[in-house]
Amino acid sequence: MILCFLPICLSLGQTASTAHLEVPHENRRVAYFMRATWPQIMYGHDADSKAPAFKFSVNEATNSVVLDGPKAYLDTVADMIHFFDVKPQQVTLEIRCSSSEDGLKYSSQATIENQTTWDCKWDAMQESTSIKPRINNDGTITLLVDVEFRGTKTGTVLRLSSGKEGAIPSTLMRNLAGLDIVLKARISP
Fold first, then answer.
1. Measured between alpha carbons, how far is 182 from 165 in angstroms, rounded to an integer?
2. Residues 6+ apart with CB under 8 A from 133
């Protein structure tokens, strides 16, 4: 049997004793790990049977991956699982909106995971904004922004240096007459 993990391949002998191990996850829900990360870990099969080298399951109550397999290799597989259990990068977003027509203003701030969406709503002005940050390799932050104002929808992409401000371009704001939006984003430690 062969267990492959990125560049690492382990040969598993048929005679290894079977053991049980629970590997807790600290930074992500284990269901996310199994859905998004586990396909990156490929495991082989015995040539004579179709049974996997290891039996994998999840314990959502303890947020753990449960392994049953050859005792000699469980720690190595656990190390592989811990490799993917990293804390997602965080982005702190700040939005300031104002309506020149009505003389109203609001601001809001949130810290969210990289590549997740923050929705903020301004009921008094019938305005809602969705912002999805993506941290780029050069340290800048790309913001995917969708705005709805009094029934009119528009979207744009902004690229900001961490800690800097950026306004929605005025060419797009013509579609949202009377609304000004300023965004600020920074990578959180």
1. 7
2. 91, 93, 112, 114, 115, 118, 141, 142, 143, 185
Residues in Cβ contact with 118 at an 8 Å cutoff, skipping those fewer than 6 apart:
93, 110, 112, 130, 131, 132, 133
Amino acid 9 reads C
Q: In a structure prediction context, what are the per-residue pLDDT tens digits for the chain, which is 189 residues long?
A: 444 443 333 444 444 578 888 988 887 788 777 766 555 454 444 445 544 567 778 888 999 988 888 887 788 888 888 887 888 889 999 998 887 777 888 889 999 999 999 998 888 778 888 999 999 999 999 999 998 888 888 888 999 999 898 887 666 655 666 677 888 899 887
- The token pair at 48 is 């004579």
Task: Give the CA distances from residue 44 to residues 34, 53, 80, 95, 121, in Å, rounded to whole numbers and listed in that order.
Answer: 17, 6, 15, 49, 49
65 CB neighbour count, 10 Å cutoff: 23
Q: How far apart are CA 21 and CA 89, in angstroms?
A: 29
